[in-house]
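Re: magnesium ion structure - here you go.
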Amino acid sequence: MFGLFKRPVVHDASAPALELEGVTVRYEGMPALDNVSFSVRRGDQVAVVGPNGAGKSTLFNVITGILKPQQGIVRIAGSGPNGHICVGYVPQRNRIDWRFPVSVSDVVMMGRVGKMGLLRRPGRVDRQRVQEALAQVGMSAFANRQIGELSGGQQQRVFLARAIAQEAELLLLDEPLAGLDIPSQEAILRILAEMRAEGITLLIATHDLNQAAEQFDQMMLLNRRVVAYGAPAQVLTTENLARAYGGQLHVVHTDGGDLVVTDSCCGGGEPPVAQFVGTPDALPEIP
Ligand code: ADP
Ligand code: MG
């Protein structure tokens, strides 16, 4: 009850956008995150990659405060995860009940709740922000449609609009590109690039190592622990990949040289697909 009336926390402008120190999460005694520490600068776009079960979704749940770690500290702009209205979260698609009868503009309006007054009634500014957000993701024409009627890519764009309407400063996207066709993926990547220009800090969980290396400044290789974190060229070494993917990583010898391939993909019950990662000596190709 009191939670509803709490004031949003005040940000420390000199603190990193996000900081974890020694975060450990166990499910029934089994560690899903083990002593995870890292720090993200404001405006960085970080791809979080790792095999299924690496703890990517668990990490996001800890950052949003949905899950409390058994050990360690999470700080968002200098203070604990609860009470922030600046954190946008787009959960994995398969964790959302799409039959829920709600329109596209309602979903985006949910992003405004933290900014509304005590009565939680949307005002003129809220409606305007919702319209602007839908326009920014190219979904204005769908404002009155039910969310469940849209394609996967359109649904993800609506959730990005919700984060834009929320004026999120830290955005967590859990595998937003999984299962989408290439044009839908490109539409979302374009929107994320616009967000970078606005200085929004972004963490995006993805299975696609090549895309992660091409599209994002920073990469975190996660497998319960942080195996490597930094610029993609530093992170994507054969040694780091072997540590993160273990038995799921294969070096395939071909006439053209050795290829590094993982057999983990997409999650959500989709069958594993071999994924070409690169050649061990020329990893990765980054523009
Ligand atoms: P990822 O998103 O990288 O695939 P998750 O964070 O979903 O990984 O899961 C990390 C590990 O924690 C997995 O071994 C998973 O089975 C386990 N796990 C996740 N959620 C729960 C839960 N609610 N209860 C028990 N175990 C869980
Ligand atoms: Mg996950």
